[in-house]
TrEMBL record:
<dbReference type="GO" id="GO:0009245">
    <property type="term" value="P:lipid A biosynthetic process"/>
</dbReference>
<keyword id="KW-0444">Lipid biosynthesis</keyword>
<protein>
    <submittedName>
        <fullName>4-amino-4-deoxy-L-arabinose-phosphoundecaprenol flippase subunit ArnF</fullName>
    </submittedName>
</protein>
<keyword id="KW-0448">Lipopolysaccharide biosynthesis</keyword>
<keyword id="KW-0443">Lipid metabolism</keyword>
<dbReference type="InterPro" id="IPR037185">
    <property type="entry name" value="EmrE-like"/>
</dbReference>
<dbReference type="GO" id="GO:0022857">
    <property type="term" value="F:transmembrane transporter activity"/>
</dbReference>
<keyword id="KW-1133">Transmembrane helix</keyword>
<keyword id="KW-0812">Transmembrane</keyword>
<dbReference type="Pfam" id="PF00892">
    <property type="entry name" value="EamA"/>
</dbReference>
<keyword id="KW-1003">Cell membrane</keyword>
<dbReference type="GO" id="GO:0009103">
    <property type="term" value="P:lipopolysaccharide biosynthetic process"/>
</dbReference>
<keyword id="KW-0997">Cell inner membrane</keyword>
<dbReference type="InterPro" id="IPR000620">
    <property type="entry name" value="EamA_dom"/>
</dbReference>
<feature type="transmembrane region" description="Helical">
    <location>
        <begin position="104"/>
        <end position="121"/>
    </location>
</feature>
<feature type="domain" description="EamA">
    <location>
        <begin position="42"/>
        <end position="121"/>
    </location>
</feature>
<keyword id="KW-0472">Membrane</keyword>
Length: 123
């Protein structure tokens, strides 16, 4: 994999991870909710007007474009497993930004993911 291809794949992964974090920040601003017939429009509007949520959706759009460029250069059997790096990024970012717990079990899982990505990338 050449540097430009790697950049496209990693940029797609990073943008996808950022989108998830921004969506979480947007829903945190709204708070816990449930959609019912009575509140679907007010809650939908509150969600649709949250700047972090809008930014998260924009990250998804850009990540899709970058991902398609990356897929045009890299075998999907190599590129797709790289998406799992987003789990690693999000676990640490959620711990740092939102105070989510990083248990030993999660850290072991992250280690397994990283080992799997290395094995696939070297194949």
């Amino acid at each position: 994999m050449n540097p430009i291809s790697l950049f496209c794949i990693l940029a797609g992964v990073t943008l996808n991870a950022a989108a998830q974090l921004l969506l979480k920040a947007g829903t945190n601003a709204v708070g816990h909710f449930e959609f019912t017939r009575a509140n679907i429009l007010p809650i939908g509007w509150r969600l649709a007007t949250q700047p972090p949520l809008i930014a998260g959706l924009a990250c998804y759009v850009v990540s899709l474009v970058v991902w398609v460029v990356g897929l045009s250069r890299v075998d999907v059997s190599i590129a797709y497993p790289m998406l799992s790096l987003g789990y690693v990024v999000n676990a640490f970012a959620a711990w740092y930004l939102f105070g989510e717990v990083l248990s030993v079990q999660k850290l072991v899982g992250i280690g397994i993911i990283l080992l799997g990505v290395v094995i696939v990338a070297r194949s």
